[in-house]
Amino acid sequence: MEEKIREEYRDERERVNKKPLGMAFVTFQNETITATILKDFNACKCQGCHCRREPKSSSFSKNLETHNWTVTYAPHPQNVYW
């Protein structure tokens, strides 16, 4: 029985890894840090036009395609289908 459950888990994990959702939830130490990161990433949004400048980049930015990211506060956990 336990081996069957382990096998089903491995199969499901393989299916999930082949079909990523393209999102992540990140938790920060406190609200101040969260607000700073959000502000820095979404540096310029003037009157509805999205003329934001690029956030600070790193050696990983190009591979991660951060220019395509949308950074917002997460919905309340009750509004997420886990």
Q: Secondary structure elements and their pairing?
A:
Blueprint: H1 2-18, H2 31-41, H3 61-64
Protein name: CSC1/OSCA1-like cytosolic domain-containing protein
Domain CSC1/OSCA1-like cytosolic: 3-82
InterPro entries: CSC1/OSCA1-like_cyt
- Give the mean pLDDT: 82
**Major beta sheet, specifics?**
none
First CA to last CA: what distance?
Answer: 25 Å
Number of contiguous helices: 3
Q: Structural class, judged by helices and strands?
A: mainly alpha
Shape verdict: elongated
Rg value: 18 Å
* Sequence stretches where pLDDT stays below 50 over 5 or more residues: none
According to DSSP, the number of beta strands is 0
Percentage of residues assigned to helices: 25-40%
The string of secondary-structure elements, in order, is HHH
- How big a fraction of the residues is strand? under 5%
Account of the 3D structure:
This protein has 82 residues and is mostly helical. It has a domain at 22-50. The chain contains three helices and no strands. It has helices at residues 2-18, 31-41, 61-64. It is elongated, with a radius of gyration of 18 Å. The two termini are 25 Å apart. The model has no long low-confidence stretch (mean pLDDT 82). InterPro entries: CSC1/OSCA1-like_cyt (IPR027815). Residues 3-82 form the CSC1/OSCA1-like cytosolic domain. It holds the Pfam family PHM7_cyt.
Offer a quick outline of the entry:
The protein is mostly helical and 82 residues long. It has helices at residues 2-18, 31-41, 61-64.
